[in-house]
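pasting Site-specific recombinase XerD for the record, 97 residues
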Amino acid sequence: MAKTSAVTPEQAKQIEAVLRQRSEVAADAWKLNLQLALRISDLLSVRYDDVQGRFLRLKEGKTGKQRELVLNTEAIKVLKRRRKTESRRCICLPVQE
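structre below
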């Protein structure tokens, strides 16, 4: 099995900068998931109704388990920024054809 390692804080900032040049949504998805560590399918299914103050309540798609996550300041900043542009889902990635 291939060895994997986490990105460093500096690498995370560099990746975010590159993503932000191409897509605000992709950069925000990256930044939010650095805070939440969700499966991509779970991240994309998060709705604003799932956010209750500083908590995110969700049902994991793969396991069906209910989870409650505490949102840190960075996650809340991203969610507030996304709320200005999205109506129901926190992260809506555009489909490219």
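The CA atoms of residues 10 and 93 lie 25 Å apart.
Residues 9-22 form the longest helix (14 residues).
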